């Protein structure tokens, strides 16, 4: 898999060579040029790459220093969220209390109203039947209970 940031091989003076060297060998003590120390820095993929000390200093100068983080412990729940939650709970409790109180006040009024309608219907029923029935007419109802063994009973009604 080719990555768009695939690193190129190092081509500096300390790069590995593919073929064996030929010619005169220069020992470390015989070097004529001033030597610069080599440091290893990680590349984009975490591999350590050799870089001369001046190049590493230039790289460090171009990379901005990260700001120190604030590591003080934070509250588990945000204070604003606590305030919103408390307001919601308080409003819900107040609404429940108001609803309960209104229910206690209005329930007897509803009972009086519905029972008043019931009494008015009963009064109309009594007055209506009394107005239709004459005073000379009497109604006799006979109820006979027949009790048998083991608690069985039957009832007959006739007028």
Features:
4 strands, two-stranded antiparallel sheet, alpha+beta, two-stranded antiparallel ribbon, 2 helices, single chain, 159 residues
Can you describe what's shown?
This protein has 159 residues and is of the alpha+beta class. Helix content is 40%, strand content 14%. The chain has a two-stranded antiparallel sheet with strand order 1-2. Strands 3-4 form a two-stranded antiparallel sheet. The longest helix has 54 residues, at 79-132. The radius of gyration is 53 Å and the shape is rod-shaped. The mean pLDDT is 81.
Mean pLDDT across all residues, rounded? Answer: 81
- Taken as a percent bin, the fraction of beta residues is 5-15%
Head-to-tail CA distance between termini: 106 Å
- Return the string of H and E elements: EEHHEE
Structural class category: alpha+beta
What is the strand and helix layout of this fold?
Elements: E1 38-42, E2 48-52, H1 53-62, H2 79-132, E3 142-147, E4 153-158
In short:
By secondary structure, this protein is α+β, with helices and mostly antiparallel strands.
């Amino acid at each position: 898999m080719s990555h768009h940031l695939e690193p190129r091989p190092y081509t500096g003076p300390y790069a590995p060579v593919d073929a064996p060297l030929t010619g005169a060998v220069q020992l470390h003590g015989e070097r004529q040029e001033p030597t610069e120390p080599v440091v290893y820095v990680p590349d984009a993929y975490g591999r350590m790459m050799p870089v001369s000390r001046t190049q590493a200093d230039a790289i460090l100068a171009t990379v901005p220093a990260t700001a120190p983080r604030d590591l003080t412990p934070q509250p588990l729940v945000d204070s604003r969220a606590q305030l919103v939650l408390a307001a919601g709970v308080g409003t819900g409790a107040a609404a429940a209390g108001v609803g309960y109180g209104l229910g206690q006040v209005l329930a007897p009024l509803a009972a009086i109203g519905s029972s008043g309608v019931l009494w008015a219907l009963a009064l109309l029923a009594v007055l209506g039947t009394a107005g239709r029935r004459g005073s000379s007419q009497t109604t006799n109802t006979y109820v006979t209970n027949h009790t048998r063994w083991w608690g069985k009973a039957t009832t007959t009604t006739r007028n």
